[in-house]
Design brief:
Radius of gyration: 24 Å
Helix content: 40-55%
Number of helices: 16
Order of helices and strands: HEEHEEHEHHEHHEHHEHEHEEHHHHH
CATH superfamily of the largest domain: Periplasmic binding protein-like II
CATH class of the largest domain: Alpha Beta
Largest sheet: 9 strands, mixed
Structural class: alpha/beta
Number of strands: 11
CATH architecture of the largest domain: 3-Layer(aba) Sandwich
Number of domains: 2
């Protein structure tokens, strides 16, 4: 009798082990989630699908998506509006993935962020993070120059040399009317680049951009003008050029009229951060779920999606880099750097300088 009972118990245990389906790794992560982000829509689509698979019981909070998209500067304006005049109102989001870390410092000062620990962050990440755990880099953007190799001789015939540095881009008077970049008043990465260039060359840099009548345009418009011969060079995120080249190659086309210039005076790396909204200000009051998603964003699987979006990984162990780019650690050696405290504390003054010296 005892033997029969023992066999019955063992059989029941075996049935549980072999017959019951295993739980998904993050099946216990529940609730709704909204993330404000400046990532390009095609990257959002990839991330959205991956998060839904990784967290099957997490509910997208924005019309079937976890993400609300906007340019960083546009999102900052939206967030200011949600905060209210006294910076004390709740937000319509639970997380941020915006382009420039200066805003992370600002939100931390306002008390809008939730602190969380990323295991072994010092060894995991190759970019700085907040030691109190309020923000971590999650993707790396790279500001560069670009040109059209097919037009080099045509420009030379007009007495125009393709700039090899950010300094030449602004200072060479022959380029007057033939350069383009994004507007820092609407683009967070353009703002970050302006801060870096001001630190290196002073206010004169903006004077020279103004004198050279730099056009302020979207990346797609600037690329089109580069290819048509309306622009000799553009300041642009590397990912925009890489995406165009890889998209064309996927169609079977070889791109010969668009190429990245890694400036001689350095590239400008922008380690974009992930932040979690403090519970008292968050839309869905679910910091536990937000922490799980933030930790996943720093996994190798998520970082490979980042690279498929033509951005560079923040993981120190990641040897791969986006297609047609160069080694991320080499870019770090070339980085001009940005004083993020300056970018935060002097945002209004820098924007005013831009307006007065470049746009008027």
């Amino acid at each position: 009798m005892k033997k029969n009972m023992i066999f019955a118990v063992l059989a029941a245990i075996m049935a549980l082990v072999f017959c019951c389906p295993a739980l998904a790794v993050n099946e216990d992560v529940e609730g709704e989630l909204v993330i404000y982000t400046s990532m390009y829509p095609f990257v959002i689509d990839m991330m959205n699908e991956a998060i839904q698979k990784e967290f099957p019981n997490l509910v997208p909070g924005i019309d079937g998506s976890f993400f609300f998209y906007g340019g960083t500067s546009t999102l900052i304006t939206k967030i200011y509006g949600e905060m209210g005049d006294n910076r004390d109102q709740p937000l319509e989001t639970d997380m941020f993935m915006v382009a420039e870390p200066a805003f992370s410092l600002e939100l931390k000062d306002y008390g809008y962020l939730h602190s969380f620990a990323v295991p072994d962050a010092a060894n995991l990440l190759r970019f700085p993070y907040d030691e109190e755990g309020y923000w971590y880099p999650v993707r790396t953007l790279n500001m560069v120059l670009a040109y059209n190799p097919e037009m080099t001789e045509s420009w030379a015939a007009k007495g125009i040399s393709i700039p090899k540095s950010f300094k030449d881009f602004a200072y060479d008077p022959a380029l007057k009317g033939y350069i383009s970049m994004s507007d820092p008043m609407t683009s967070g990465t353009a703002y970050a680049a302006v801060v870096s260039l001001l630190e290196h060359y002073g206010e004169e840099y903006l004077d020279k951009l103004g004198e050279n009548r730099v056009m302020r345009e979207s990346g797609s418009t600037a690329i089109a003008k580069l290819q048509s011969g309306e622009c000799a060079a553009i300041m642009i995120l590397e990912e925009s050029i890489l995406k165009y080249i890889n998209d064309e190659e996927a169609k079977g086309n070889t791109v010969t009229n668009l190429e990245v210039i890694y400036p001689e005076d350095g590239v400008i790396l922008i380690p974009s951060t992930v932040m979690i909204v403090a519970e008292e200000y968050s839309r869905n009051v679910n910091t536990e779920a937000a922490e799980a998603v933030a930790e996943w964003l720093l996994s190798e699987d998520a970082q490979r999606l980042i690279m498929q979006g033509y951005m560079h990984s923040v993981l120190a162990s990641m040897d791969e880099h986006p297609a047609h780019s160069i080694d991320t650690n080499e870019l770090i050696k070339m980085d001009m750097g940005i004083d993020w405290v300056d970018a935060y504390k002097n945002r209004e003054a820098i924007n005013n300088l831009w307006t007065v010296k470049v746009t008027q």
